[in-house]
Amino acid sequence: MDPGFRRNDHPFSRRRFGPYHRRYGLRLAAWFLLIAAIVLAAAPAHAVRPDEVLADPVLEARARDIGRELRCLVCRNQSIDDSDADLAHDLRVLVRERLQAGDTDAQVVAYIRSRYGDFVLLRPPLALGTVLLWAGPALILLLGVFGVVRFYRARAHDPGTEANAAALNPEEQRRLDAVLGEER
User: Fold this and answer.
1) CB-hemisphere CA count at 13 Å for 176?
2) Which long-range contacts (CB under 8 A, 24 or more apart) does 110-115 make?
3) How many angstroms separate the CA atoms of 4 and 30, rounded?
4) Distances from the Cα of 116 to the Cαs of 32, 65, 120, 166, in angstroms?
5) DSSP label at residue 44
């Protein structure tokens, strides 16, 4: 051990950290509890009602998996499992009825898709009708880049900018020298 190093000189020793712990300990705990509450509140709350739950746990698990793939048509960006809307409740009941009737997961999704269209799927397939959904963000980004490039190119060619102000013909340079010479 280093002869100049004493045990209590460590930056995290109780003697050096003690006053800070007493002063900031409760604040730190309060911040921790606040962050934990926010994280727990942001977690998805399943809106499946107790009367909807199937007695067979295997069918219920399949219904939950299908419910996470289907969009609530009222809430737009929530699955029917997470939505409290009446239409989402109706869709959850419909999914469970189809599963009890013996349909496969794909048949249940196809049935609901035939009734409500591709919009009911949280991940719509890439098709002619959904190309804009998939390519929209990239298209908006490209248009933004094109606009910025066009703006700066137009600005560079504008005769009033500083970049073009230095390019004077000899006559303008002579007049400028004369004006500057008179002011001095």
Assistant:
1) 9
2) 112/70
3) 39
4) 44, 19, 6, 65
5) P
Angle at 183 between CA 180 and CA 184, to 5 degrees: 90
Tokens of 71: 């969009």
Average pLDDT, the chain: 77
Tell me whether residue 64 is exposed, middle or buried, using C-beta atoms within 10 angstroms of its C-beta: 0 to 12, 13 to 18, 19 or more.
middle
Reported as half-sphere exposure (CB side, CA atoms, 13 A), residue 50 has a value of 0
Lowest mean pLDDT among 87-96, 108-117, 152-161, 171-180: 152-161
Q: Please name which of 90, 102, 89 lies closest in space to residue 62, comparing C-alpha atoms.
A: 102
DSSP state of 46: P
**14: pLDDT confidence band, cut at 50, 70 and 90?**
low
pTM over 0.90, yes/no: no
Residue length of the chain: 184
Residue 47 and residue 83 in contact, taking contact as beta carbons nearer than 8 Å: yes
Residue 95 · residue 115 · CB < 8 Å: no
Structure tokens, 3: 């002869």
b/e 78-103 (16+ beta carbons within 10 angstroms → b) = bbbbbbeeeebbebbebbbebbeeeb
Hey, what are 99's tokens?
């599963």
